[in-house]
Automatic annotation (TrEMBL), chain A:
This is Acyl carrier protein. The keyword Phosphoprotein applies. Residues 1-83 form the Carrier domain. InterPro entries: ACP-like_sf, PP-bd_ACP, Ppantetheine_attach_site.
UniProtKB/TrEMBL annotation, chain B:
GO terms for molecular function: 3-oxoacyl-[acyl-carrier-protein] synthase activity. This is 3-oxoacyl-ACP synthase. Gene3D superfamilies: 3.40.47.10. PANTHER family: 3-OXOACYL-[ACYL-CARRIER-PROTEIN] SYNTHASE, MITOCHONDRIAL, POLYKETIDE SYNTHASE-RELATED. It comes from Euzebyella marina.
C-alpha cells in the first residue's frame, strides 16, 4: 500500500504539472481538492483517465469520484480493492 | 476621414533579453546553433503558479509580453476592445502530445488539458480570460504572415473606428518534433552557424527559434507612442522581379517614394536559396536606402516578423539604429520612416510601413 501511495503522489505531480510540489509535501490524508492541493474539475477528469489507463478502473458513476479522490489514502484504498491491472 | 493608428507600447520575449524593455539591444546574446530558444523571463513574476501549470510555453511567453505591453501603455485592461493574435502553429507542443497520446493509447484515455491547449486560438483566449476581456477575440493562422494578418485586422478596425484600443501580437513556440521534421526536409541549417555570421553561412536553411511579441495599438496617440502605423500589405506569392514594383506601389498609396524611406528592415535569415528576395529589393530604387536586418538576433519562425516590428518601433522611439542590426555602411541617424519587408522561403511576403510620431 505504501508503495502505491508513493506511486500515486508521483503520478499526480507529473500528470497535473504540479511543478512546485514535492512528493514528500503531500501527506496521505491531505485533501486533494479545495484547501489541500487545490485541484479543480479538469484535474478530476485527468485523475479519472489515470485510474482507467493505469489501473483498469472505470468509474461508472462520476459521483463516486468525490469520495475516491478525497486524498491519496482514499485513492490507494479504492485502487487496491478494484484494480484489474 | 480615416483615423490614424499608433503603436502605443511593445512587449517581447525572444532569443534576446527583450522582455526587459528598459534597454535596447545593449547586450546581444550570440549563439552557435541550428536552433535557438527564447531567454525566459521569470514566469512566476507574471503568472500565478496555479494558472501556469497548465500553460503551454507559447501562452506563458505571450502572457508576459502582453502584460508588459499593457503596463507600458498604461492601459487599463478594461480599455482593450479586442485581442488579435497571429500564430503559425499555435501551441504546437500540446498539439503534438495530444496526437501522440491518441496514437500511443490506441485512441483511448485522452486527457482534457492537452486537448484544451492544442488549438491555435488558445493564446488569445487565455490572455482574454486573464484580463476578463469579452471583446473581439481572433486568431490568424496564416503561416509566416500570421502576425501581419493580425496587425492588418487591428489597423483596419482602428482606422474605421470599430475599436479604439487593441492588443495585438504574434507568437510561436519551438518543439522537438517540429524541429526534427524541418531538419529532415532541410529547412533548418545542417550545421551550426554563429548567429552574427548567418549572412556569410553560404548554406541552405535557417536557424529556427521561437518568440512572442505584443503591441498595444490605438487610434488615440497617448503620451509615449512609439510610431504611427501607416500601412501593411501581404502577398501569398510574389516573384523576385515583382517585389520592387509592389513595394513602390505600396509606398505610392501613402504618397511616398523610396526616397522617403530612411531605413529598410529586411528579414534575411541566412538561407542562400531565399535571401535573394531581399537582395532583389535592395537594388535599384532602394539601392541607397540604409538597411537593417534582425533574424540573426531573433532566429526564424512564423511570427519572427514580430521581432522586426518590435525593432522598427524601438528604433523610432530611441532615435538610433543599433550597430548590431545595421547592414552595410550606410546609416541614417534618427530614422523617421521605416519600411519592413519579410518573406519565408519565397512565400508569404509582407510590407509594413511605420513613421515616427
Amino acid at each position: 500500500m505504501s508503495e502505491l501511495k508513493q506511486q500515486l503522489k508521483e503520478k499526480i505531480i507529473e500528470q497535473l504539472n504540479l511543478e512546485d510540489v514535492a512528493v514528500d509535501e503531500i501527506q496521505d490524508n491531505d485533501p486533494l481538492f479545495g484547501e489541500g492541493l487545490g485541484l479543480d474539475s479538469i484535474d478530476a477528469l485527468e485523475l479519472i483517465v489515470m485510474l482507467d489507463k493505469d489501473y483498469g478502473i472505470k468509474l461508472a458513476d462520476p459521483k463516486e469520484g468525490r469520495k475516491i479522490f478525497e486524498s491519496v489514502q482514499t485513492m490507494a484504498t479504492y485502487i487496491e480493492a478494484n484494480r484489474s491491472r | 476621414m480615416k483615423n490614424k493608428v499608433y503603436i502605443r507600447s511593445v512587449g517581447s520575449v525572444s532569443a534576446q533579453k527583450t522582455y526587459d524593455n528598459t534597454s535596447f539591444l545593449n547586450k546581444v546574446v550570440t549563439y552557435n546553433e541550428t536552433v535557438t530558444r527564447v531567454i525566459d523571463p521569470n514566469y512566476k513574476d507574471f503568472i500565478p503558479p496555479a494558472a501556469a501549470r497548465r500553460m503551454a510555453k507559447g501562452i506563458k511567453m505571450s502572457t508576459v509580453s502582453a502584460k508588459n505591453a499593457l503596463t507600458e501603455a498604461n492601459t487599463e485592461e478594461s480599455e482593450v476592445d479586442a485581442i488579435i493574435v497571429g500564430t503559425g502553429l499555435g501551441c504546437i507542443g500540446d498539439s503534438e502530445k495530444f496526437v501522440s497520446d491518441i496514437i500511443d493509447n490506441n485512441e483511448q484515455f485522452l486527457t482534457p488539458t492537452r486537448f484544451i491547449q492544442s488549438s491555435h486560438n488558445t493564446v488569445a483566449g487565455q490572455i482574454a480570460l486573464g484580463m476578463g476581456c469579452k471583446g473581439h477575440n481572433f486568431t490568424y493562422v496564416h503561416s509566416s504572415i500570421s502576425f501581419e494578418s493580425a496587425l492588418l485586422d487591428a489597423h483596419m478596425q482602428l482606422m474605421n473606428d470599430e475599436a479604439s484600443t487593441i492588443l495585438t501580437g504574434g507568437v510561436d513556440e519551438l518543439v522537438e518534433h517540429h524541429v526534427s521534421t524541418h531538419r529532415l526536409i532541410g529547412h533548418i541549417k545542417k550545421d551550426p552557424v554563429e548567429t552574427m555570421s548567418i549572412l556569410d553561412s553560404g548554406s541552405k536553411g535557417a536557424i529556427f527559434s521561437e518568440g512572442s511579441h505584443f503591441f498595444v495599438v490605438s487610434n488615440k496617440k497617448g503620451e509615449n507612442a512609439y510610431s504611427e502605423l501607416l500601412g501593411i500589405r501581404t502577398f501569398n506569392s510574389l516573384e523576385r522581379d515583382e517585389i520592387e514594383k509592389e513595394a513602390l506601389s505600396f509606398l505610392k498609396e501613402q504618397e511616398m517614394t523610396s526616397d522617403d524611406i530612411d531605413l529598410l528592415i529586411l528579414g534575411y535569415n541566412g538561407d542562400v536559396e531565399f535571401d535573394t528576395y531581399y537582395e532583389a529589393l535592395s537594388q535599384e530604387s532602394f539601392k541607397n536606402t540604409p538597411k537593417a536586418y534582425f533574424k540573426h538576433l531573433s532566429g526564424e519562425f512564423d511570427t519572427a516578423s514580430g521581432f522586426g516590428f518590435w525593432l522598427a518601433n524601438k528604433i523610432l522611439k530611441h532615435g538610433f539604429v543599433p550597430q548590431v542590426v545595421q547592414l552595410g555602411d550606410s546609416s541614417k541617424e534618427a530614422p523617421q520612416t521605416i519600411l519592413i519587408y519579410n518573406q519565408y522561403r519565397g512565400e508569404n511576403h509582407s510590407l509594413t510601413l511605420l513613421k515616427k510620431c
